[in-house]
Amino acid sequence: MMASMAGASQAALIEYGHNHSEIRMNQIQVVGTHNSYHREINITTERAAFEEFHDNEKNLYYSHASLEHQLEYQSVRSLELDLHSDVEGGLYADPLLWRMANLTNETVPFHDPNMTKPGLKVFHVTDGDPHSVCHTFLECLWQLKGWSDNHPNHLPIMIDLELKMEAPACGKGGICAEEALKWNLTRLLNVDSEIRSVLPPSQLIVPDDVRQGNLTLEQSILQHGWPTLAASRGKFMFYFDNEPDAGPRAMYRENGHESLQNRTVFTNAVEGDADAAFIKKNDPTDTAELQRLVKKGYIIRTRADIPIDTVLNRDTTMRELAFASAAQIVSTDYPSYGMSSRWDWDYAVQLPGAAVARCNPVSAPSWCKDSALE
């Protein structure tokens, strides 16, 4: 099956000529998943404690398939991972939720020995929402690399990294180690190091690959554009999605790195700043503004829904606005039909024909053909 799909893609390229090798990575639109790692808590052993911890928060009742399965079977081409710094190891190995549920070592939902080792951890809420398809950043990266190695011609995969630092259960028996949770430059560079320890330069798109000559990163993408799909296949691009005025962005750019020189991850930046290449606009309501940014040359990420509210309200307005905005990344918690059926409503966010990409409605050239992308 894989061979036939590859053959079909190559045939499409031949059919539509060589122009499609010139399509740039910002000239397509893909579906991504929000909190792509997230697994719902165990309904049998944890639900009562979970509802007490979160005051009956239903918006956390959703689960995703493994990262590989999202890429392979759900036409997903962008993912989101929440990162928690754990310099010494073991900081998040015993979440308060398990103690509230009176779980023992024999009954806790997972025993990942890597949770006790130093390194970046991947989960949602400290002490209160710990389940993940991959508990450490390295585990997630190795899963991504394994899938990529088996699909070397895939479209570039854009990975959203949210730096987490909250301690919501401090004072209730949870983590109160404020200094351990804070991000500093050393910990930010640990993100770079872990990415590069798994993915070689040949599988990465980093700011240095985009910036040209003495131009800033923003000047480079606005004047010369992003890399072509032909040059980006089989690669990953990472970006921090924390707000532009949050501390991590300033630290990551300081001391001669304003255009992210020698950095691995792009930032959620502000139009007009040297590092402005990716911009997060989760609210797609101002469609004209998002289209303006896309047309200008930035890569934009927006959201199509808010779990579980969108499903409970049975309202597709946000989804339609997200696609119409032309944002290159339309993020959802429902990339496949069936995921919302527990709420008695069939809902999903997919491109026509469940395609992995389509020509961007604002930035792609008129000759672009969806069938020639992947």
Structural summary, described in words:
The protein is an alpha/beta fold and 374 residues long. It contains 14 helices and 10 strands. It has helices at 2-15, 47-54, 67-73, 96-100, 137-150, 178-181, 185-198, 207-210, 217-223, 229-232, 247-253, 287-296, 309-313, 317-324, and strands at residues 28-33, 76-84, 121-122, 157-164, 204-205, 236-240, 278-280, 299-303, 329-332, 358-359. Strands 1, 2, 3, 4, 5, 6, 7, 8, 9 and 10 form a 10-stranded mixed beta sheet that branches. Strand 7 (278-280), helix 12 (287-296) and strand 8 (299-303) form a beta-alpha-beta unit. Helix 3 runs parallel beside helix 5 (137-150). 44% of the residues are buried.
Largest sheet: 10 strands, mixed
Q: Distance N terminus to C terminus?
A: 14 Å
Number of helices: 14
**Quaternary arrangement of the chains shown?**
single chain
Give the ordered list of helices and strands.
HEHHEHEHEHHEHHHEHEHEHHEE
Q: Average pLDDT, to the nearest integer?
A: 92
**Strand-residue fraction?**
5-15%
Shape: globular
Radius of gyration: 21 Å
Task: Give me the count of strands.
Answer: 10
| Share of residues in helices | 25-40%
Low-confidence stretches: 1-16
* Broad structural category: alpha/beta
